[in-house]
Amino acid sequence: MVTSRWSAAPAQAASPRRRGAVLERAILDAALEQLSTVGWSGLTMEGVAAGAQTGKAAVYRRWPSKEDLVVDALKAGLPRLDAAADLGDVREDLLALVRRARDAMYSRPGFALRSVIHECDTMQAERFHSVIVEGVVEPTIRLLREVIDRGIRRGEVRADAANGYVFDAVPAMMMYRSKMCGCEWTDREIEEMVDQLMMPLLRPSGV
User: Is 121 exposed, middle or buried (0-12, 13-18, 19+ CB in 10 A)?
Assistant: First the structure.
């Protein structure tokens, strides 16, 4: 009996058709991948669809514009800064927190966010302001407040150090040095910032 070469070939399993949350997650992941490789200017809805292995129509049904898609991708992807470590010493707590903020900055979503910040014009940047503030700046400041309040209760930090200028110092320095100076925020650079900037700001008088 002669077997046809077509019948002899193993059957190919059909790829399952993704829907709902599974498809949306794939599209958001593809958008982050595009941002981290080709940047904001190079990202296209067609490229995102190809990366997610879906049709362009599936992307546009959920997100009518590139800006809408990127906002949701960044919100979904940015690491959560939920609680500050309590290591029993304000310096160690600050080092641990700043390292977490650094790791978030250099994660794939963090890299994607920085590409948006660097490449967008003023009008476009306004769309991403809430993502930056709510996803990065406010959580970092909230955890800095937690660390500093603990330090005040332990007597390591002066009572009037719990103010907006002190809370702004770490995120402002990290964003400025990263964007303007290309600072990579190595562990040594983090220790220098904590020891030369934050600790002098926080110490009680006479210490």
Answer: exposed
